Amino acid sequence: MKVLLVDDDPVFLELSKTFLEVFHDINSDTVESARQALEKLDELSYDVVVSDYDMPYMDGISFLKTIRDKRINIPFILFTGVGKEEIKSQAIENGVDSLIQKRGDPKAQYSELSKRIWQIVKNGSG
Hints:
- It is a single chain.
- This protein has about 130 residues and is an alpha/beta fold.
- The chain has one domain (about 1-125): Response regulator (Rossmann fold), CATH 3.40.50.
- Helix content is about 50%, strand content about 20%.
- The protein has a 5-stranded parallel sheet with strand order 2-1-3-4-5, sandwiched between helices.
- Helix 1 (about 10-25) links the parallel strand 1 and strand 2 (about 25-30).
- Helix 1 (about 10-25) packs across helix 5 (about 105-125).
- The longest helix has 18 residues, at about 105-125.
């Protein structure tokens, strides 16, 4: 299994990659922008995209819309610190597979993230 992690915070990306690979046996590539992620998706195959919402130039919802507009049929998890209802409803309207809040205990949030990734891949949703 291979996951594409997208976040404009390089420290958070490295932490995410480490947690998923070391503790949850999930391989991942990391990119710091939606534009870089779109380039990766053109080149390589992934089982799931995990993206932040609040990024410069293209936020997580715009990134999700772009993926769906390009008919890239890949499960998409929005992993965000922004908890506004408006963002949640936009994510759902645009076909997000899951939405996870970045807050609280990192061990618990990565455990939740890995559980969702495995469920999505196992169930073949997307």
